[in-house]
Every structure is written in C-alpha cells, then in structure tokens.
Amino acid sequence: QVQLVESGGGLVQAGSSLRLSCAASRRTFSRYVVGWFRQAPGKEREFVAAVTHSSNTYYATSVKGRFTISRNNGKSTVYLQMNSLKPEDTAVYYCAADLVQIQPNPGFWGQGTQVTVSS
User: Is 100 helix (H, G, I), strand (E, B) or coil?
Assistant: First the structure.
C-alpha cells in the first residue's frame, strides 16, 4: 500500500509555469512507476506523463516539450514541471503509482490538485 499526496496546483496565467509534487508514504517508492494524469470538466481522465523506477520518461503528445517529469527517490517524491501553460491544461491533476505499469489502471492514486490556466 502506498499513499500519494499531490501539491503545487493553483491559478496561473497562460504562458506561466507550475511545479506539481507527488509525495509518497513508502520508502520503497523507488520501485514504483509513477505517473501524472489529468481530468478536465466533462472529459475523461487522460495520461500526462510517467517515470519508471529507472527514470525513463514518457509523455503525452499534448505536453511533450512543455512538461518534465522527474523523481527524487531519496525524498519519495515525483515532480511535474509544467512550462508554457495553456488554458487547455486546466484540469485536476492526479498522481498515480504502480509496481508494474502505469496504464491502463495504476494501483494507487492521489486525491488530485487543481490547475487552472487563465487566458
């Protein structure tokens, strides 16, 4: 069992940056694949980015080149650096983790953090 707590969301203007953090409760966090998903109002939850236990990274096409996912295993934390934010990035962002694979259904989820980008 692992508990995930997101932080760092907020209201920003288009073109701004935010950094989301996902803090995990387990010291074995380094073994987990960790990802970020988001859900906008009226839309399905979608994959944003993921980082494996060996720090390989994967991104959705819509955020590639603007978002960067990274992890600090010593702090049991994964980050999502979001640059050049657009209004269409507005969503609740969720951190998720799994020992095997992050899609389609990771085993653990955080409670989410709201990101709102104004035009």
Answer: coil
